[in-house]
Amino acid sequence: MSKRQIIRRDDYELYSIKMPFLLRKKQRNLYISRQLEKIHPRFSQRCCIDSKYYLSKKGLFASVAVMDTVTLAKYKGKQTARLCLEENRNRIVFSMHNPSLYAFVLCASLTVIFFLSYMLSGLFLGKQQMIEQPLETVTAISLEDDSVLRLSAVLDNICTNKGMLNSLSVLQNQISLETTDCFPEQVIVHEEKTNSLVSNLSYINNEPVFSVSWTRSAQSLYSPVSDSELLSEQLRSLVKKSGVHIQTELTGAAGMICFSELQSFCSFMQSLSDFCLEHDLDFFTFTCTKEGNVLAVSFELARSECVQKIHSLVAMYSLLFTPVKESKPVEIREQTVAWNPVGTVYQKDGSLIRFYLDENGKIKGVYE
User: Fold this and answer.
1) Which residues contact 277 (CB under 8 A, 6 or more apart)?
2) Which has the minimum average pLDDT: 117-121, 135-139, 152-156?
3) DSSP 8-state secondary structure symbol assigned to residue 264
4) Looking at residue 302, what is its pLDDT?
């Protein structure tokens, strides 16, 4: 059994981050880094992370351990034992089987040794002046659209509180939706209230209705398709197979305006999402409005570098547009039949049998 070295609780931070589905490994790492920038007070390129994924009833989560590079290098320099966390000693973290991590820690260790040697040599030569040079900041290109992440959170809250969607609109500069059967405080979290425009709460047929909207960002991560004619032909065939009526097709782009019945909407959105995954596309714009038992849908597809795809969100939460029919309990009434008593017989064990004439004139006995 290999030796294990325990990392003290004060030397690392542990976070649980809810993850979107349908993310590749590289996209997951980018998403985790973006979330850590928001919740970790000192997160920077000086930090190393170790992630383990797990499923729960609430979705996919990542358990993320965060350590400072210099602190991790000290643990790695002590001995070759495998590292594990103090609060979970069965979890092996920052394994050296990862070559990139090994190279990163090695470079960090050499950097620390170089700076320590420089400082000691400066003191030895009698230099009293301390020269501070700011660290060079490397700006990483964000592949995340915060407005789409907010849409994911809002749809999840509506689903959790058993609300419904009347409309959803994803435009170039704004995302908006109208929901019913839930309340604003259940849908919009506190930190997002300042960035969202929430309408007054109204009641239709004694059910609460309100709308919410916010600015859409990261349009630069979308680019138009170059093979729009081929994609439009394939898209046309897919929509017709789904039993959806096409009203208008876009020219010079991949998109259309169509109408779907409620019972076929979910399967249509799933087929459209599969099409986007196959061709590496996403909704550049998307609108869906409920009009009685019909949903009016319009969309335009584009190439996207965003981690969270809009098409996957629409397919995942398409049930919010279709009301769930609650099955009413069947009331069972006992049919009472007037039977005429004939007589009674007492048994040796003290039990009693009563005899009746049923509706057919036959004698029936009942124990009492």
Assistant:
1) 22, 309, 311, 312
2) 135-139
3) H
4) 92
Q: For the residues 186-194, what does the mean pLDDT come to?
A: 68
Structure tokens at 355: 């005899």
Q: Which tokens is 347 given?
A: 């048994």
* DSSP classification of residue 140: P
Angle between helix axes 262-279 and 228-241 (nearest 10 degrees) is 150
DSSP, collapsed to helix, strand or coil, labels residue 85 as strand
Tallying the residues shown for the chain, one arrives at: 368
> When comparing pLDDT for 42 and 295, which is higher?
295
Q: Give CA–CA dist 144/218, Å, rounded.
A: 8
CA angle 236, 296, 277 (to 5 degrees): 45
Number of other CB atoms surrounding residue 140 within 10 Å: 11
DSSP state of 259: E
Identity at 11, one-letter amino acid code: D
pLDDT digits (tens, 9 = 90+) for 267-281: 999 999 999 988 889
User: Which residues, at least 6 apart from 274, have a Cβ–Cβ distance to it below 8 Å?
Assistant: none
pLDDT surpassing 90 at residue 307 = no
Buried residues in 36-66 as b, exposed as e (16+ CB within 10 A): beeebeebeeebbbbbeeeeeeeebbbbbbb
DSSP per position, 92-118? EES-TT-HHHHHHHHHHHHHHHHHHHH
CB-side exposure of 64: number of CA atoms within 13 Å? 25
**The predicted structure's pLDDT at residue 160:** 87
CA count, 13 A, side-chain hemisphere, 72: 28
235, β-bridge pairs: none
Q: Chain-wide mean pLDDT for the chain?
A: 77
**Residue 64, both tokens:** 């993320």
What distance in Å separates the CA atoms of residue 368 and residue 353, rounded to the nearest whole number? 6
List of residues 6+ apart from 63 with CB closer than 8 A: 14, 15, 16, 51, 52, 53, 54
Mean per-residue pLDDT, 284-308? 90
Q: Crossing angle of helices 69-78/99-124, nearest 10°?
A: 100
Strands 92-93 and 254-261: unpaired
Residue range 73-87: mean pLDDT, rounded? 77
Q: Which residue is listed with tokens 């170790």?
A: 50
